[in-house]
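Protocol step 4 of 6: record predicted structures for both targets in the notebook before any analysis. Target 1:
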Amino acid sequence: MAKRLQMAAALCLFLLSGMAMEDPYSVQVPVPDQSPEARSEAFQRALAAALLKIVGHEVTVPLPQAEPLVEQYAYQETPEGWQLWVRFQRDALNRWLQEHGMPIWGMRPSVILWLAIEEDGRRRLLGEGDERLAPLLLEEASRRGLPLILPLLDLEDLSKVKVGWVWGDFFESLGEASKRYGAEVMLVGKVLRRGQGWLGDWTLYMGGDAERWQVRGSLDAVLRSGVDGAADRLARRLAVVPRSTSTSLAIRVFDVDSFDSYVDTRRYLERLPAVEAVWPRELGPESVLFRVKLKGMMEEIEQAIAVEGKLIPLSVSEGVLEYRRRP
């Protein structure tokens, strides 16, 4: 019951806070009208936009004709003009990517952004309530398929997070404050005015590893580069070239030496992305061999396990993925 309540509370926070999280196989592009010619051209732009999210970087090879890959589309009239929403066929697009040896970024950990901005000698934190900069950040995150969370900066946040913690790189303290959002990755940014432009100092913190980079430019460009830099680095780490189209696989987990650890491990595997069902195939004194039925790619399971860190990878033996339960 307590776990269900925690999950419900986390869901409420996602709904209340700013968050960009979309299906990478669905995109929306502007279109001048509803003519077949305009729609065909928009399909090609939509395909390029979808591939950017799916692969994690710009695709440089010639793209296929988009229309045969379209699963659904719909028009929407907005104050800015017509928009065309397009959803592409996941399996067909994945086959094309596999044929061309391109990676697929399946597992996308949620990213909490702690951002401090300094201007005229004053520093402030940026949250989802910033009317100008928050939409810019979420729009760029949507373009890159990055599940970005902007903090609420409510009383609970402000009682735990100080602007000096962001400026001083107090990652451990920021990590504690991030737990309420259920984020697996932190993006920490410090942006300050330098002369006529801006300087952005960014750090992506994931699983104990930190990657840092700096950029200069206009304020908008510096902010977009923070989101792009995070997406680039996560895609490099998590995107994989599909090796097979198997519908099932075997996973052996060691240090499963009690009924409780067996139940916990099986439930963990069942909730992984791309998993449809899990059955025990062989029970040993300290390990269990599971048969896993897939509804996606095997690589998505490997990515999810690598991000969450609950299982330690050992090897691949005779087609069996082997892991050890983390103590």
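Target 2:
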Amino acid sequence: MNRRSILLIAVCLLILAGGGYWLSTKLERYTHQWDSGPELDVSFNPWHAAQTLLETQNKESHRSFNLHPVFERLQPYDGLVLHNASTVSNPATRERLENWVHDGGHLIITALEEWDFEQEFADPFLDDYGVRLYHLEEDDTDAEEVAIPEALFDSETETETE
């Protein structure tokens, strides 16, 4: 190799190195993520967020479609969330659930059936405890404009003045 070709190769390498350096200072690396929607376990589990929260607190949680296997796992101070009270329609199941609550268990039931004023009936389990779901129609009044009956304050003002 003669001197001229070595010089030409050195200049080419220098230009390539300079171009590489310039590109490395001007270009920015980024990662693009496509939103493909929720994963399957999130789509099919409405309790996923609650279970994830409990897992972060190192607490066990289980999901079941049948109430009877759940009774085998329940401890006296556990919490049970029922999506509807239709699973409590069986008297034996209801009695077992009420005994568990009486022993210290925590029961949360979502009320799904609205109170029917004509039949005066909704969910028999919740109705026994006086829990009713009413449909409130939206009206034009704001929450601030709701009038509070003055009779509620009369007994308080009488005791204060005496």
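Step 5 preliminary note on target 2. The chain is about 45% helix and 5% strand. The helical segments are 3-26, 40-43, 48-56, 67-73, 91-102, 124-127, 151-161.
Proceed to step 6 after PI sign-off.
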